[in-house]
Structure formats: C-alpha cells, structure tokens
Design brief:
By secondary structure, the chain is of the alpha/beta class. The protein has helices at about 15-30, 55-75, 90-95, 95-100, 115-125, 140-145, 175, 185-200, 225-235, 255-260, 280-285, 290-305, 325-335, 365-385, 450-455; strands at about 5-10, 35, 45-50, 85, 105-110, 130-135, 155-160, 160-165, 180-185, 205, 215, 225, 240-245, 270, 310-315, 340-345, 390-400, 405-410, 415-420, 430-435, 440-450. It has a 6-stranded parallel β-sheet, with helices on both faces. A 5-stranded mixed β-barrel has the order 17-18-19-21-20. Strands 7-10-13 form a 3-stranded parallel β-sheet, sandwiched between helices. The longest helix is centred in the C-terminal third of the chain and has 24 residues, at about 365-385. Bound molecules: S-adenosyl-L-homocysteine, iron/sulfur cluster and FE3-S4 cluster. Iron/sulfur cluster binds near residues 209 and 210. The site of FE3-S4 cluster (F3S) has 13 residues, from helix 1, helix 3 and helix 7.
Length: about 450
Amino acid sequence: MTRAKGKHFIKTFGCQMNVYDSERMGEALTEAGYVSTDTPESADLVILNTCHIREKAAEKVYSELGRLKQIKKARQSQGQSTTIAVAGCVAQAEGREILLRAPVVDLVVGPQSYHRLGDLMSRTGSEQGGIIDIDFPEDDKFKHLPARSKVSHAPSAFLTVQEGCDKFCTFCVVPYTRGVEYSRPVREIVEEAERLVQSGVSEITLLGQNVNAYHGDGGCGETRSLAQLLRVLAKIPELQRLRYTTSHPRDMSEDLITLHGEEEKLMPYLHLPFQAGSDRILAAMNRKHTRDEYLELVQRIRAARPDIALSTDIIVGFPGETDEEFARTLEVVQHVEFAQSYSFKFSARPGTPAAAMDDQLPEEVKSTRLQELQAVLKKQQEAFNLSCVGKSIRVLMERPGRREGQLVGRSPYLQAVHADGDKSLIGRMIEVEIISAGPNSLEADIVNTSISDVIAAE
Ligand code: SAH
Ligand code: SF4
Ligand code: F3S
C-alpha cells in the first residue's frame, strides 16, 4: 500500500454545481493519494470552493481565510504544514487579487482546472508566491477527472451535464466565472449515471447553469436535447427518479414540457427563475422574455403536469426598479403560487453591466421589498406543504434525522419529509402518509416499505 500524501478538507459555498465539483475534486485527490478528513485543523490541504454570485457570498471567503490563517499558524508551531487552496467562482473572478489580499493562500484554481489539482499540488511549496491556474482550457476537464468512484454514494446524487452560460443577464457573474456554455456528450453522462446507480444512487439531479439549453453530442454527429437525454437516462432500470436544475424560461422546449406529462421517473418539480415581474426590468436584466411569456409558459407546464411544484428565483431592487415595478413582481408571485423560492436583494457585481447602471437603489429600499416579498412567498410555501397533509406519497429515504429513530427523505415535490423508521430503510423508496406540515418540512407515517421492490418488478 502506498503511504497517503496527506489529508484534505473541502468546504463548499454556493450552488449545487459547486457541491458536485467538490465531490469530483475529492475523488481526484483520493486518486492522487490523499484521504479526506472532517476538520480543517487536521487537514494538510484545505480547499475553499467558493461562490461569487453576490457580494456577501464572495466576502465569506475572506472571513474564512482569516480563520484558516490562525489554523495554519497553530499547525506550523507543531511542525505541520498546511496548503490552502481557493477554488470555484471567486478564484476565477479574482485570480491574483486573492493572493495579494490573502497571502495565506498557496493555490488559486478555477472551476475548469480541477483535473490538474494533483499536479498543481505537487508544485506548491517549491514555487514562490502562490500558484494560479484559472485558464479556460480547450480540453474539457470531465475527460480528465477520474471516473466516479464506486464507493457507496448517498441515495440522491448530482450530475453536471452542462456548464457555463451565454445568456449574459446584466446582473450576473456566471458567464464570466464559468465561461461559455458547454454540454457534455450523452455517452459520458450515461456512463457516469450508470456508475452512480451501481454505487447505490436512486435519484439523479442533472445540473447546469442553463440545464435546459443542454445540446450534447449524441454519438453519431447529431446533438441531443435535455428531453432526449432524460429519456435515455430514464431507461436505466434501477434509476428511480430524475430531476434537473436550473432552467431558463427561454429554453423550456415543447418536448421537455411534454415529457413532464409522460415520464414517470421525471419528478413533478421545476425550478424556473423569473427574476422580476416588470417587462421594463426584465428587458434591463436582458432576460429575453416578458412577464406574459413566463405566465403562459407556467400555464403550459401545468397543463402537461397539473400537480407540478414550481420554484423560482427573484431579485428585488434591480437598478431603477420603482415601487410600481416591484408590485408587478408581487403580482406574478400571487398569480403563480410557488411551492418554493429563493429571493435576493440585487447585489452590484464588479464587471457586470448592471453594476454600472444609474439609479442604484438604497439598501433600505431593497430590504423592505425583500421582506414584503418573502412574507408572501413563505405563506405560499406553507400553503403548498399543508395541501399535502393526508396524502400518500412516495419518499426516497436519504439519511438519519436529528432525532433518534427518525429518517429524512424527499417527496416527489422536493420537500423534506421526516418519518420514524429503521435505518435500513435509507436508500429505499417507501410510501408514507403525510400527517402534518411545517413551513420547511413534512411529518409522515410510513405506510409501505416495499415500494422499491414493486418498482423493480414492474
Ligand atoms: N442560471 C440561473 C441562475 C444562476 S444564479 C438562471 O438563469 O436562472 C442563481 C440566482 O442568483 C439567480 O437566479 C438570481 O436570482 C440570483 N442572482 C444572480 N446574480 C445576482 C445579483 N447580482 N444580485 C442578486 N441576486 C443575483
Ligand atoms: Fe446568470 Fe442569466 Fe446565465 Fe442564469 S441565465 S447563469 S442568471 S447570466
Ligand atoms: Fe456561485 Fe459560481 Fe454557482 S458564482 S452560484 S458557485 S456557478
């Protein structure tokens, strides 16, 4: 057996894509001879996988680096060295600036260079002043990362199928931090999905910044859409559930909408950001759709799958947004009734067109609007959760709950469901009856534990 090179600790900020990337980085480091550890104090290599989407998210990195500086010092006094790496979207956006602002950092590595982590690590220590790798390589990183490990996975897994974004919404840093839109070939995705399923995964969420703009190589020179990819994946027998996120309203094709009414494995949940309800603001955001187009889309999706749970992202206080324009956002929310949502105060991000616009709004205006909006969204979420009480639904049990004897799983509508049951049920699809609902989760009684077998036999 080769001796381990050391222990690594990865802390993840930001979106699901970073969660996925952290998992892949962990696997690449295992391949390079590292083992994982649970605390930064015990780690020889600490990686912060960072998010640049809003100012608050980006600033978190520096407070975290302050803490790591102390840990590095304490370890040094015991004769242990610590390598500190900043990965992810802040790494891509700020590059060398990170080394200048936080000299404790040894390595800055952008989201497209994770396959080179092992190499980069072997260079740290021998080069002065920190190492930076934030190129957008011609060659795609997925080809070079080791295959997904077969060690057992949680029952639900993420799988990135599309990365980057060409939409350039005026408020958003993603096109700059993740680069141009890229879709992975169908075969590569199917192989990864099969490996995940072999290691115990029953539910896969396909990820992309614009996942429904997916157009990957189908193998014979033709491209495949997200709907076509989902159809192929649904054929994997032991794979029981499919989800995808995040979708752009402009890329919601008829084929994909139809699939929601046809494919049992495709869960009745859709995250469909609308950002703002005023057409003037939507145009200034460069969202390339109007309020009515969004509402009409919602109608078509609900016609295809009446019980679908809709979720969204909303920004309040975009430059120049008036009270009347904000009221249009509230109207859309009242009209659609969302099962879940994420809402944010506009944050001016360096280098984006919206940051340079006149009429930036005061913080208090943004805060008041956000509070008003979130009160409405919270009521809608509670109402949706309450509407599930008394229903029998299938839950994929994912992990033990906080209380002894309690399990936590997900409903088809992505709600967290708590039920008392034996740990052996983790990883299984079971039938429960919902007995009560809170703002963020459901309580249930287990009705039938043999659903997995029924599905397998069908
Ligand atoms: N690709 C997705 C969104 C990715 S970013 C889409 O197009 O819908 C996730 C969410 O963060 C966005 O939907 C938006 O609501 C929010 N967001 C992005 N940039 C922001 C900014 N500068 N200020 C506030 N919220 C922002
Ligand atoms: Fe950002 Fe717009 Fe692209 Fe979404 S579609 S990642 S909000 S630029
Ligand atoms: Fe944040 Fe980058 Fe995701 S900026 S939201 S981690 S794509």
